[in-house]
Design goal:
Layout: H1 3-9, H2 28-36, E1 45-47, E2 50-52, H3 59-78, E3 83-86, E4 91-92, E5 103-107, E6 116-117, E7 123-124, E8 129-133, H4 138-141, H5 144-151, E9 156-161, E10 166-173, E11 176-179, E12 187-189, E13 197-199, H6 200-204, H7 208-219, H8 222-235
Parallel strand pairs: 4-7, 8-9
Antiparallel strand pairs: 1-2, 3-5, 5-8, 6-7, 9-10, 10-11, 12-13
Helix pairs in contact: 3-7
């Protein structure tokens, strides 16, 4: 508990949960208890047992890039039965980690995916693909959070470093993340989700028409069709 939390504890009734304070060290159960008691807080994360409460998100440096990534992933999801996606959902990864990623894709549990919905509609376990928009949170998106995602088996992790104008795509290989090297023109091809092609250069310059055109080229390939058949067979 931080000094700020200790000071608040002296004036609150014993049955009132303490507020979340960035930097607090909490169990996942206590984190959820405090978070639930603060409906005005829109985003808080528990990463390696420590509370993170990001700064207010600007449109230019966060919400617009996030919207682009969600659009890109949403088109892929729509074309790929057996794949689910979302944004800003609380993920119960393990007892020390409960992040709220900016966007993700997951294979449905009935199709062989590694995450699952609990009785309250929360996700438990790791989605296969996670993307984060890192304008002011690079310090933990590329360190503690990245390590938590690696340890929990997130197959692919993308970090868009908006202020740097760079995008990192990591692939889990042999228990470690390796950076995916773009092909000529900035094309990145997912290894976990066949057909998920990203024109990273177009994304970084805001050309979403080009991003979606290159994605459609990936969706038109036979390996994507084979992936859809594989998911359908696993779910049947």
């Amino acid at each position: 508990m931080t000094a700020a939390s200790s000071a608040v504890a002296e004036v609150l009734p014993a049955d009132v949960p303490l507020p979340l304070v960035s930097g607090d060290r909490l169990t996942r159960d206590e984190f959820e208890r405090r978070y639930s008691a603060m409906p005005h807080v829109k985003k808080a994360e528990l990463i390696e047992g420590r509370v993170y409460m990001p700064s207010p998100a600007s449109h230019l440096h966060h919400s617009r890039p996030q919207s682009s990534v969600v659009t890109f992933l949403g088109v892929y999801q729509a074309a790929t039965p057996g794949v689910d996606g979302g944004d800003n959902a609380t993920l119960r990864l393990d007892l020390d980690n409960e992040p709220q990623p900016d966007a993700f894709l997951r294979v449905l549990e009935e199709a062989g995916g590694q995450s699952r919905l609990d009785s309250l509609g929360y996700l438990e376990g790791a989605p296969e693909f996670i993307a984060e928009i890192a304008a002011s949170s690079v310090s933990y998106d590329l360190h503690d959070k990245m390590n938590a995602y690696r340890r929990n088996g997130v197959s692919e992790y993308v970090v868009w470093r908006v202020l740097d104008g760079e995008l990192d795509w990591f692939v889990l290989r042999g228990g470690a993340y390796a950076r995916l090297t773009p092909e000529e023109g900035g094309l990145l091809r997912s290894e976990a989700f066949p057909g998920l092609w990203l024109d990273s250069a177009a994304l970084l310059r805001g050309d979403m028409a080009r991003v979606l055109a290159r994605l459609q080229a990936g969706l038109n390939r036979e390996d994507h069709a084979a992936f859809v058949r594989q998911l359908n067979e696993a779910a049947s």
